[in-house]
Write a structure and sequence with these properties.
This protein has a four-stranded mixed β-sheet with strand order 1-4-3-2, with helices on one face. It has a four-stranded mixed β-sheet with strand order 5-8-7-6, covered by helices on one side. It contains two helices and eight strands. With 114 residues, it is α/β, with parallel strands linked by helices. The protein has one domain: Roll (2,3-Dihydroxybiphenyl 1,2-Dioxygenase, domain 1). The termini are far apart. A hairpin with a 5-residue loop joins strand 7 and strand 8.
Amino acid sequence: MSEHHKIHYVELPSTDFAAMQEFYGTVFGWTFEDYGGQYVAFHGAGLEGGFTPVDKAPSRGGAMVILYSDDLAASEKAVIATGARITEHHDFPGGSRFQFLDPSGNELAVWTKV
């Protein structure tokens, strides 16, 4: 299958690399590769990506990264256990999801089929 015009990599703005690694490693089991404090790549997310440094939290309302979960309730519990804030819940034909703010203020979602 051609990779032409396919989403290849995702970068999440980060105000704190250590907090982002702790959060995503604890909740979702991602692993990380540090590039000298200037960039952190993440692995195990289904799509490769990284954390890019920013001075302030990103604004909400941009593109949404949505993760899949086999157990939505357990995923939400893990997010809440880190102190992250749940921002929304949605039920829709065929599924449910919740949205949350990560330690740098990025809003992401987790969904599951029903």
